[in-house]
Amino acid sequence: MQVAAIQMVSSTELDDNLATARGLVDQAARQGAELVVLPEYFCLMGRRDADKLGVREEPGSGPVQDFLARTAREAGVWLVGGTLPLRAGDEQRVRNTTLVYSPNGDCVARYDKIHLFRFDNGRERYDESQVIEAGVEPATFELASRDGRSWRIGLSVCYDLRFPELYRRLAAAGAEVLLVPSAFTHTTGQAHWEVLLRARAIENLAWVIAPAQGGLHANGRRTWGHSMVIEPWGRVAACREEDGAGAVMATLDESRQAEARRQLPALEHRVL
């Protein structure tokens, strides 16, 4: 199955971001991608964190959700909508939500980011909990590829990557592919992005698809990029080395994964 991890440098303008995303999805579809995954915050990187409140949507209704459904249907792909802000339990916060759309344009899965990023090195300060309400449940979905093969896909977002217990839960639920749409900062990404992605792949003998924001944004934030696809043995199958928007393509080979899990049945050896 051909997959695409989309890299963006999302701006403060929602319509511009949607137009960029549509062009990249269409490009990936023309190149044969069946599964296309957008990065975290693909629809908006506001000047302030609170800007998310201004574009939040009700579950099941809104311009971003309409865009994702229409794009999946018209491009004929499984489309994972990075994250978008959905209404939370109060008026001061949103859920940072991944939605998955089938090639028919139906929303088939939802995941609300569980772990909320906080970082302060004296120069950069981030605290997602100020405007985001954490999710509570892991999520997977079933993807039927064009060759008739069924893939179990596990969902996660960005900072979740630092919590291996989430990915073990996903693997225990049968996940063969792990998605990590992200907006890693340049500082933390340079230090930890690749090693964490490869670790999650190796631990769970799973494919990892990690689209990312990558570049300097209008709000002054610089993101690490390096969108990539990792094989179940931990090798980087594809990576976008430069900043800027683009699509990273790779082919998921089920035989390679089956061989790795047969040769090293670590998932069967779990004790805790």
UniProtKB/TrEMBL annotation:
SUPFAM superfamilies: Carbon-nitrogen hydrolase. Residues 1-254 form the CN hydrolase domain. Pfam families: CN_hydrolase. It comes from the Bacteria. Signal peptide: none annotated. Keywords: Hydrolase. One of its GO terms (molecular function) is hydrolase activity, acting on carbon-nitrogen (but not peptide) bonds, in linear amides. Belongs to the carbon-nitrogen hydrolase superfamily. NIT1/NIT2 family. This is Carbon-nitrogen hydrolase family protein. It comes from Ramlibacter aurantiacus.
